[in-house]
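Hey, weird one. I pasted the Putative solute:sodium symporter small subunit sequence into the form twice and got a warning about non-standard characters only the second time. First submission, copied straight from the form history:
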Amino acid sequence: MADRQSSGEAYWKANLRIIIISLIIWFICSFGFGIMLRPMLSGIMIGGTDLGFWFAQQGSILVFLALIFFYAVRMNKLDKEFGVDEE
């Protein structure tokens, strides 16, 4: 019983670590690059517009989509590692 409980705690600790890292990356890209650092990024051009505007309009959304795929792949690996996968 204690082994199962410690395994469950390790699983949720690893899960929370993935979530926290993903949220930090999302926050940095959306709020940091798109709002706070936008004036500093205005001199760098990408796709016909400055990088700060690009992060505010498209970049943060693309990073968010990449994070969704990262989370799904990483959680599938974590589920298999702890034996709680659906397959």
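That's the output from the first submission. The warning seems to come from a hidden character in my clipboard, not from the data itself. The mean pLDDT is 88.
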